[in-house]
Design goal:
Blueprint: E1 3-6, H1 7-14, E2 23-26, H2 34-45, E3 52-55, H3 62-70, E4 74-76, E5 98-101, H4 110-130, E6 134-138, H5 141-146, H6 151-160, E7 166-172, H7 186-189, E8 193-196, H8 202-208, H9 217-225, E9 231-236, E10 241-246
Parallel strand pairs: 1-10, 2-7, 2-8, 3-5, 3-6, 4-5, 6-7
Antiparallel strand pairs: 8-9, 9-10
Length: 254
């Protein structure tokens, strides 16, 4: 049976993150707290020496805006961001421990908006691939794959970049994908750390069974079905290890 931890104890004492580890969060919108949990974990691992870039494709998101402020990330509309004197090491400055890449959108021309998002995100991901250790936080994996044509680039990251120190953190509310676009299996069997929430849709739970970690799909499904809202079944591939994480944040109820 998996051990139980609250998120604060887990992230401070048990989340053994190393350069290049990929981290996956799968769960329904409004019932899992994917973005909140991801940021609370980034809070203990992101630094000026291991910076993170969050890719935000939504035109408005209160959770991302709040954690950008709280974690001291710098918001930028394009990549690379304009450098500030206070962030240049040679001048005695300190680079931020992360950026939120948040390109503006017209909201009237979806094709143009998607083209801009794709171009900016491609530049940021490529930058992180060549500047390691680093973390790319893909706030909504399915959207990046299905709407912005980043499937090949993100697949290359998740299959090739870990050894170089580039970690991909990705969230998805629909691991089964849709009839037209599916999430490649690499995203289920390449992450070192996986956070799975309770999901009422059987097709999504079946994707959990693709996680190659030495724990049976039957056990994974049984434990996820026991979870309360805003709790996670955590699986670490190395080991394997598993635990139940109570990640409820009072701000989620506001």
């Amino acid at each position: 049976m998996p051990e139980h931890f609250d998120l604060e104890i887990f992230r401070r004492k048990h989340f053994d993150y190393r350069d290049g580890h990929h981290v996956a969060f799968f769960g329904p919108t409004q019932l899992a707290g994917k973005t909140t949990t991801a940021y609370q974990l980034l809070d203990v691992v992101a630094s000026a020496e291991r910076p993170a870039i969050t890719l935000c494709m939504k035109h408005r998101d209160r959770t991302i805006a709040r954690f950008t402020r709280e974690l001291g990330f710098r918001e930028t509309p394009s990549w690379p961001p304009a450098r500030k004197f206070s962030e240049i090491r040679a001048l005695g400055g300190t680079p931020p421990r992360g950026h939120t890449l948040w390109p503006p959108q017209t909201l009237t021309n979806v094709e143009a908006d998607n083209a801009r998002l794709e171009a900016e995100f491609t530049r940021a991901i490529t930058w992180n691939r060549g500047h390691t250790p680093s973390i790319t936080h893909a706030n909504e994996l399915y959207g990046l794959i299905a709407e912005l044509n980043l499937r090949r680039l993100l697949t290359a990251v998740v299959t090739r970049d870990s050894v170089a120190g580039h970690g991909l953190w990705y969230e998805s509310q629909k691991p089964s994908g849709t009839q037209g676009v599916s999430i490649p299996g690499f995203f289920f069997n390449s992450a070192e750390h996986m956070f799975l929430s309770r999901d009422g849709e059987e097709r999504n739970r079946r994707r959990y069974g693709e996680i190659a970690c030495g724990i049976s799909d039957t056990e994974i499904e049984r434990e996820t079905l026991k979870l309360d809202p805003f709790s996670w079944l955590y699986i670490r591939r190395t080991g394997p290890q598993w635990a139940v994480i109570d990640a409820f944040d009072e701000r989620l109820a506001a």
